[in-house]
């Protein structure tokens, strides 16, 4: 009883904090400060039709690098902990139930399409909504489908980590090239900006997003593959 | 106007699903309810003109994390039986 009263009082307290927030809320009719600068100058400076991409990859590129590193750390820690459970019981094989006929047949059609859609999302990140993270997640969901349809198939860990390493080195390399050739780390003006709104435009943003997409896809895939391969906890 | 009504309904539905996810005893129901919360949150983001966030939420929040939860539940359940 006391516990429930305490929870109720706590909820009231949190609610009163948010009440003052919503009371002071005023609708902003126009952008202010740095947001205004981004909205007015991003298209001319960086040549990206999608403003969000210009902010995420170039103006706040260091934050994207941080997010990718956090994801890498998560997948590395998960792989480490799950591989501790794997050792010692190599001899007993995992038994898989066969997937249903509909899933197997549909996966043959769907997996290439999902892969191409994921690649489309991150290559067109500077033109349409989406980008490296979204494209990588879509590619990882294609891998989920293939794992569900063919549970007995093996996905090579060295292949995943090779792709991830290449993408990571490429991302950092493009950033360092920005210091040498343009005005700072992760600057996209290391290449010609090109025609506004075409596929090959916005300098290095498509290249950086291809690396981010490959890296995120590889990291999420490695989490899934590690989970698939662990033995059940006894 | 229609967007306001739609977002109010979506918000109420998200709250109901979140309470279901916390209160239910069945773990499968809880996982599905969490996935539905993410799915409807992604529609909310789309209404508020943030398609980039909506794509991330739909792909990671309602797709991948639901699958990962089910994987882990499956692993734990077999050892408990």
Oligomeric composition of the shown chains: heterodimer
Average pLDDT rating of chain B = 87
* Residue-averaged pLDDT of chain A: 82
Most extensive protein-chain contact, per-chain counts: A-B, 22 and 17 residues
Number of separate strands of chain B:
0
| Percent helix range of chain B | over 70%
Q: For the terminal residues of chain A, how far apart are their CA atoms?
A: 38 Å
What share of the residues of chain A lie within helices? 55-70%
Series of secondary-structure elements of chain B, N-terminal to C-terminal: HHH
Strand content of chain B: under 5%
Short description:
Chain A is mainly alpha-helical and 234 residues long.
Overview of the molecule:
The complex is a heterodimer of chains A (234) and B (81). Chain A has 234 residues and is mainly α. Chain A has one domain (39-83, 101-228). Helices cover 69% and strands 0% of the residues of chain A. In chain A, α5 (101-123) runs antiparallel to α6 (132-149). The longest helix of chain A is centred in the first third of the chain and has 26 residues, at 61-86. The longest helix of chain B has 30 residues, at 51-80. Chain B is an all-alpha fold. The radius of gyration of chain B is 15 Å and the shape is flat. Chain B has one domain. Helices cover 90% and strands 0% of the residues of chain B. In chain B, α2 (27-47) runs antiparallel to α3. Chain B has 3 helices and no strands. Classes of the chains: A mainly alpha (234), B mainly alpha (81). The A-B interface holds A 50, 52, 121, 129-131, 133-134, 137-138, 140-141, 144, 220, 223-224, 227-228, 230, 232-234 and B 51-52, 54-56, 59-60, 63-64, 67-68, 71-72, 75-76, 78-79.
């Amino acid at each position: 009883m006391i516990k429930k009263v305490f929870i109720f009082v706590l909820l009231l307290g949190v609610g009163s904090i948010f009440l003052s927030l919503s009371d002071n809320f005023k609708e902003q009719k126009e952008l202010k400060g740095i947001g205004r600068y981004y909205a007015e100058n991003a298209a001319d400076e960086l040549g990206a039709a999608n403003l969000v991409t210009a902010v995420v990859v170039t103006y706040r590129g260091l934050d994207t690098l941080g997010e990718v590193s956090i994801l890498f750390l998560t997948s590395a820690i998960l792989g480490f902990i799950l591989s501790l459970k794997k050792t010692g019981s190599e001899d007993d094989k995992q038994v898989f139930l066969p997937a249903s006929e509909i899933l197997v047949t549909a996966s043959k059609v769907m997996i290439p399409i999902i892969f191409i859609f994921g690649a489309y999302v991150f290559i067109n990140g500077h033109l349409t909504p989406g980008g490296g993270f979204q494209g990588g997640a879509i590619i990882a969901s294609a891998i989920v489908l293939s794992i569900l349809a063919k549970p007995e198939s093996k996905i090579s860990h060295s292949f995943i980590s090779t792709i991830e390493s290449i993408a990571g080195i490429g991302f950092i390399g493009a950033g360092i090239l920005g210091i040498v050739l343009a005005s700072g780390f992760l600057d996209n003006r290391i290449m010609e900006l090109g025609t506004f709104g075409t596929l090959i435009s916005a300098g290095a943003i498509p290249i950086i997003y291809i690396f981010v997409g490959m890296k995120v896809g590889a990291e999420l895939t490695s989490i899934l593959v590690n989970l698939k391969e662990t033995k059940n906890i006894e | 106007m229609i967007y306001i009504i739609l977002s109010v309904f979506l918000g109420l539905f998200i709250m109901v699903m979140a309470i279901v996810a916390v209160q239910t005893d069945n773990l499968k129901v809880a996982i599905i309810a969490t996935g539905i919360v993410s799915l409807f949150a992604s529609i909310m983001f789309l209404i508020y003109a943030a398609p980039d966030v909506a794509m991330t939420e739909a792909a990671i929040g309602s797709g991948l994390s639901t699958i990962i939860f089910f994987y882990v539940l499956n692993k734990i359940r077999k050892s408990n039986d």
